[in-house]
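We were asked to recover a plausible sequence for a given structure. The inputs and outputs are reproduced exactly as logged, with field labels preserved.

PROBLEM: sequence recovery
POSITIONS: 314
GIVEN STRUCTURE:
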């Protein structure tokens, strides 16, 4: 089990934060849950994302992507669930989740005509809240959000491929209403060595002209919060992320260098009043020179992204 460094601020996370969050009278609430695993030897990235609102509206995406220009599988669904349904026994349109409160574990299963997925996730450390970072968690993003790196064991089948999962993986869970018009840009990432002795989770955000950083690094069994970062990103002409170098200092003054290089990309556009684009890169990586893999996400307001692409073409 990975331990926190001495003197690290405590997370205000309770066992029931694994479950659905209920809105106060006259308020609104939204839970977002996410799992991912990048398997570089198979040149595959896998993610599952689930949301649930206080009035029972729910939806998910389950995506497998690789080196091609289109995802290998992308299943999207929306629907409604009963008021009493919670994440310890959740189901919606072929997806089921069993996530007991405070267990540091979950079972996620999904079946469709194109995809079969079933895995057990077990956390390797206590859930980490972005409130534990010096920059904290901005209120426009969530009330709270925890990140947890762990291990998955299971299987995924699609097309004529079957991949046995026995691998480092990651999950997060945030709750509260997100103000999508507030952020100008963010980068979110998770990277890990095959034995999980080195892990980097980082969220680098820009809003109202300010930058902030959140996340943690793990070295040889100890987890420490990120304090500051210096980033150098590479993009293709269509503004898909190609590479990233991140120089990190943690809260006790240790430093870490993460480098990520994309082998696969997929896009998740969203419409509505404030159209946005989230792009997910499956990557090979290195952490302090050690071989690693991971996922590197970018967020953009769609109108700004369109302008950037147009400028690149000139």
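RECOVERED SEQUENCE:
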């Amino acid at each position: 089990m990975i331990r926190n460094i001495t003197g690290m601020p405590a997370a205000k996370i309770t066992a029931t934060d694994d479950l659905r969050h209920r809105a106060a009278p006259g308020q609104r609430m939204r839970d977002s849950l996410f799992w991912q695993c990048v398997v570089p030897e198979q040149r595959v990235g896998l993610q599952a994302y689930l949301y649930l609102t206080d009035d029972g509206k729910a939806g998910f995406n389950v995506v497998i992507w690789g080196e091609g220009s289109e995802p290998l599988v992308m299943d999207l669904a929306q629907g409604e669930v009963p008021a009493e349904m919670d994440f310890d026994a959740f189901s919606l349109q072929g997806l089921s989740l069993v996530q007991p409160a405070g267990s540091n574990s979950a079972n996620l299963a999904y079946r469709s005509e194109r995809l079969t997925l079933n895995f057990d996730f077990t956390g390797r450390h206590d859930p980490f809240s972005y409130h534990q970072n010096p920059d904290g968690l901005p209120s426009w993003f969530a009330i709270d959000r925890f990140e947890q790196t762990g291990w998955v064991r299971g299987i995924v089948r699609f097309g004529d491929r079957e991949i046995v999962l026995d691998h480092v993986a990651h999950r997060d869970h945030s709750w509260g209403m997100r103000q999508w018009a507030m952020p100008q840009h963010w980068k979110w990432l998770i990277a890990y060595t095959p034995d999980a002795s080195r892990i980097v989770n980082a969220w680098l955000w820009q809003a109202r002209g300010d930058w902030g950083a959140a996340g943690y690094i793990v070295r040889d069994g100890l987890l420490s919060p990120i304090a500051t970062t210096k980033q150098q990103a590479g993009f293709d002409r269509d503004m898909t992320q190609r590479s990233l170098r991140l120089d990190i200092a943690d809260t006790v003054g240790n430093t870490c260098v993460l480098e990520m290089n994309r082998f696969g990309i997929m896009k998740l556009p969203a419409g509505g009043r404030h159209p946005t684009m989230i792009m997910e890169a499956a990557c090979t990586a290195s952490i302090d020179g050690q071989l690693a893999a991971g996922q590197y996400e970018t967020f953009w307001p769609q109108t700004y992204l369109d302008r950037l692409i147009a400028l690149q073409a000139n």
